[in-house]
Specification:
It contains 14 helices and two strands; from the N terminus they run αααααααββααααααα. It is mainly alpha-helical. Strands 1-2 form a two-stranded antiparallel ribbon. The termini are far apart. 30% of the residues are buried.
Amino acid sequence: MPEEKAIIKYLSDFLDYCEIEKGLSNKTQENYNRFLRKFFKWLESVDLNDLSPKKLTADHIWRYKVYLSRHQDPVSKKTLKKSTQNYYLIALRSLLEYFVEKDINSLPPSKVKLAKDKSDKEIKFLSLDQLKLLLLAPDRQTIIGLRDSALLETLFSTGLRVAELAALNRDQLKIKDDTSDLEISVVGKGEKIRTVYFSARSIKAIKAYLDQRKDFDEALFINYRRGAASSAETRRLTVKSFENIVKKYVKITGLPVMATPHTLRHSFATDLLNQGVDLRTVQEFLGHSNIATTQIYTHVTNKQLRDIHRRVHENREL
């Protein structure tokens, strides 16, 4: 029976599945390959190289998490960061999801809990490198990929709340062939009206998406589920749908941050502050009624300044 095969012998099949059925990029497949080999190496180290999927237990997962937590780099002697540990756990969870998809009896993916990080209580935002991975993840050869590319670009470009983005209609965006910048008014939280600005990159992504639209739905972003058009008057994406789409690309890219649409809003604000934009201006961009709400982002930029100061001065001799 297939489930009698050792877990470590499923790697090739899993990577084929990632390429053919999931459509993941070569880089993502390389990452999964590298991250899973760490798990296989641990299995071999504890004499479990013949462990089959159906014999995998929660105790095995716990022991592997302990191993990751205590693992030291042979050169630096430093332990793995919580975010790095989560890379390995996300890959393992994806392997278990593959087992579910192929009806191979094993532990449910939900049993693989990510490592808790002190930063979980802090504002989550993406670095520029992580943003680049996320924004380039959608397949622009499909209408769904064009839609997802447009919505991700718009989230980061504008700092819109997800509910504000979901409410956008096509006729609000007057995009022509030579449009390079765009501003519109939106009604945000507390019925407050503010101006939102779109970057040239987000405009290009939206135009590419709208050029392929053949429907007459007024919503800017719509779903493409079967029967969606007949089940409702509008196919407008819900807030939950936006959250699921962002989660989908976080998983595809293997990012350690459990990003949500709000994470992109945080990233938008943090990027502005890092580029020297003053707090009052950021407040206007975000539509905050009280500047105290905007000040939470200064904790992020202040921490970066503190880290730079420590690196420069901690070992300096006068």
